[in-house]
């Protein structure tokens, strides 16, 4: 009798466990059909079914690296991979972009709620120049897929209707800037040399137990040339990881192009990232955008 009771208890336990296990599996499973519909891309699951990756081969790019003709299989395929972590999903991706596509694609990603985590080259000697923008995000699966879909929709539109490169005729030999006004707007003093007005703002990190700062390259800098009405600014923002997204959004909203995001050191504490920028416009408006970006950083408020 005791044996029959124990067997019955086992069957009852299994009867309760099987549905709950199925429910748990369903709760953690990705809705791959919806992801494909929202991203506008076909995808595939990995071996254990935990990651769903959609891809967009850039077969439209006729690139060569030296004398090597490139195709999507040689590294010209954009992608986004989805997985679930507990009650939410995460996405990571790498968007293959030509130079004139960088700014609109970055804005599309940031405006749709995604993070941009890196922007760099994967090749040297490539023609045309190809860049790679890494994106990421976490949250609701549908919202993430919809955001990724907006990025790829923008990319497809740019392929159909390419944008022209930004341009203005500026020669540092003819610079005539109101440098006092630029310094006043940014709130930092600068120096003039060879027709370029440069402002440098130091930050500090620790490497191998030593403090490292401004003069060792841990700094934000901006270099202006041209006239008050038609100026160029280029430079480098030193940002902590938690500052990166706000600085990117501020620069893009102000019309300044971000041309690279990467690290300059390893093993530093805290981790410092560097984003390089390029902007054209009136000197004061460029300076105001930089000041706004500085204001988003905790150490520069």
Describe the structure in your own words:
The chain has 301 residues and is α+β, with helices and mostly antiparallel strands. The chain contains seven helices and 17 strands. The strands form four sheets. A six-stranded antiparallel sheet has the order 1-2-5-6-9-7. Strand 3 and strand 4 (68-69) form a beta hairpin. Helix 3 (102-111) crosses helix 6, helix 5 packs parallel to helix 7 (283-295) and helix 6 packs antiparallel against helix 7 (283-295). It is globular, with a radius of gyration of 25 Å. It starts with a helix and ends in a 6-residue tail after the last helix. Residues 18-27 have low confidence and may be disordered.
Features:
six-stranded antiparallel beta sheet, 301 residues, alpha+beta
The gist of it:
The chain has helices at residues 2-28, 32-39, 102-111, 141-160, 179-186, 244-253, 283-295; strands spanning 43-45, 51-57, 64-65, 68-69, 77-85, 88-98, 115-121, 126-127, 130-139, 191-193, 196-202, 205-207, 210-212, 219-226, 231-240, 257-263, 272-281.
- Biggest sheet strand order reads 1-2-5-6-9-7
Number of DSSP helical runs: 7
Radius of gyration over C-alpha positions, nearest whole angstrom? 25 Å
State the share of residues found in helices, binned by percent: 25-40%
Class computed from helices, strands and strand pairing = alpha+beta
Q: What series of H and E elements makes up the topology?
A: HHEEEEEEHEEEHHEEEEEEHEEH
Q: Quote the average pLDDT.
A: 92
Shape estimate: globular
Strand count, sense and closure of the main sheet? Answer: 6 strands, antiparallel
Question: What is the distance, rounded to the nearest whole angstrom, between the alpha carbons of the first and last residues?
Answer: 77 Å
The parts where pLDDT drops under 50 for at least 5 residues are: 18-27
Please count the beta strands (DSSP E, at least 2 residues each): 17
Q: Please report which band the strand proportion falls in: under 5%, 5-15%, 15-25%, 25-35%, 35-45% or over 45%.
A: 25-35%
């Amino acid at each position: 009798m005791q044996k029959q009771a124990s067997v019955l208890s086992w069957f009852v336990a299994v009867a309760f466990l099987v549905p709950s296990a199925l429910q748990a599996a369903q709760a953690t499973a990705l809705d791959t059909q919806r992801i494909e519909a929202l991203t506008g891309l076909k995808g595939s699951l990995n071996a254990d079914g935990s990651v769903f990756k959609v891809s967009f081969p850039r077969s439209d790019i006729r690139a060569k690296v030296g004398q090597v003709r490139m195709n999507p299989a040689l590294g010209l395929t954009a992608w986004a991979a989805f997985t679930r972590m507990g009650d939410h999903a995460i996405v990571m991706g790498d968007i293959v972009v030509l130079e004139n596509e960088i700014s609109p694609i970055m804005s599309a990603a940031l405006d749709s709620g995604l993070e941009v985590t890196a922007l760099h080259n994967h090749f040297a000697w490539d023609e045309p120049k190809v860049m790679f923008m890494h994106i990421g995000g976490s949250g609701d699966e549908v919202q993430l897929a919809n955001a990724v879909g907006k990025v790829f929709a923008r990319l497809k539109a740019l392929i159909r209707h390419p944008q022209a490169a930004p341009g203005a005729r500026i020669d540092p030999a003819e610079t005539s800037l109101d440098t006092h006004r630029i310094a006043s707007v940014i709130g930092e003093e600068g120096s003039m040399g060879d027709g370029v007005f440069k402002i440098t703002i130091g930050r500090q990190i620790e490497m191998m137990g030593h403090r490292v700062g401004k003069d060792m390259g841990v700094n934000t800098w901006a270099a202006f040339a041209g006239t008050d009405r038609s100026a160029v600014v280029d430079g480098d923002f030193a940002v902590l990881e938690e500052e990166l997204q706000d600085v990117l959004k501020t620069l893009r909203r102000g019309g300044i192009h971000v041309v690279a995001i990467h690290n300059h050191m390893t093993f530093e504490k805290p981790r410092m990232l560097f984003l390089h920028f390029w902007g054209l416009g009136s000197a004061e408006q460029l300076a105001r955008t930089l000041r706004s970006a500085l204001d988003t950083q905790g150490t520069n408020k």
